[in-house]
Amino acid sequence: MSQWKVLLSSVVINSMVKGTLKSLGVLMLELGSRGVDTASASWVPAIAYTLFAVLSSPVAKLAGIISHRLMAALGGLIIVAGVLISTFPLLPTLYLGLGVALGTGGCMCSITGVLEINKQFTGSSRGLAHGFSLAGNTLGGLVLPGLIALMMEGWGYKGALLILGGLLLNIVPASLFYSSRKDSKVVCTEESRAENKKVFKNPRLWFCIFSMASTTVGYTNFGLYLPLHLHTCLGFTKTVSASYISIFALGDLTGRLTGPALSDRFSPRWLWYCGGLIGAGISMLCIAFVIDGFAIGGLTMLAGYFSGVMVGVYPALLSDELGADNLSVTYPLSQTMAGVLNLAGPPLLGLLATVLETSYVMLLLGLSLIIGSLPLLLSSTIMHYRASSIQ
What's this model's pTM, rounded to 2 decimal places? Predict the structure, then answer.
């Protein structure tokens, strides 16, 4: 029973954290209407997503020292503080609040959830548990962007963020179901060092990291720039543009719920992961050429579904390829290495959107996901056919 309490807590926490992160695109639109330059405002999500990823490894190690429960609770309080100071719409406070605090606190909450699920669930149920846990990301993305847009219409920018801060306080009681015990694996032995070196020399790890790096360009920035594309290029209203994030999140949620469960039953898991990358990439490429709202909605749903499959399968893929016991090292490392691209991604894409059109941004996002899938897909296909020929 305690397993399912942990899983439910992880869903709640992920929905709060990732829902807020995915709402940054709505906030960018609002800041643009207040006269804030798009290129300057794009540094807010750049800082948030970079810290969210880059801090993964040190946060994972620290969580083993002070316990997952305390780490997640502290992360929630940091996020709330960041949202509250961002009620003053000045670039320095936005960089500090929605950038530094949201990224740091979000990492503290998210990584502990992944590690806690990996500890509580074993065997064939692990992939499904990771999928349900990460489905919280899309639950938040389904609800919060549209809710924030409506709150801004009703109570203004400051009122919306004050209410959001109150909602995010729910992270703290949810984190109390996490383990309060310190990890025994924190003590680093010669045996664990040797195992880590063996993992680092495995090319499969670096293929996975390369593919994850592509998602920091394509998947992460799609939610930021889709509303901007629809508003500036196609003339949709800000509220309607924000609603497409919810469509993307609905597809994402469906993919996260079905993808890991199907990959548990029908192997190989790498094929599900690479298929998710390619499917999402093709859908985003098509959005760049389509102007009909219903067609864009369908493509957005497809992009979300394939993205959900890819993201939901990833932790279980790392466990399969590199060992479940190494997930506390491999998952944070892949997040950290890929997160470096987050710092440059949004500002460069914002500059591209200013100089050219946002349709070129959509093209770049789609291509990045397709290219990111190729090393893992090609190497896995070669290994599969070699194994088949031997048998």
Answer: 0.76
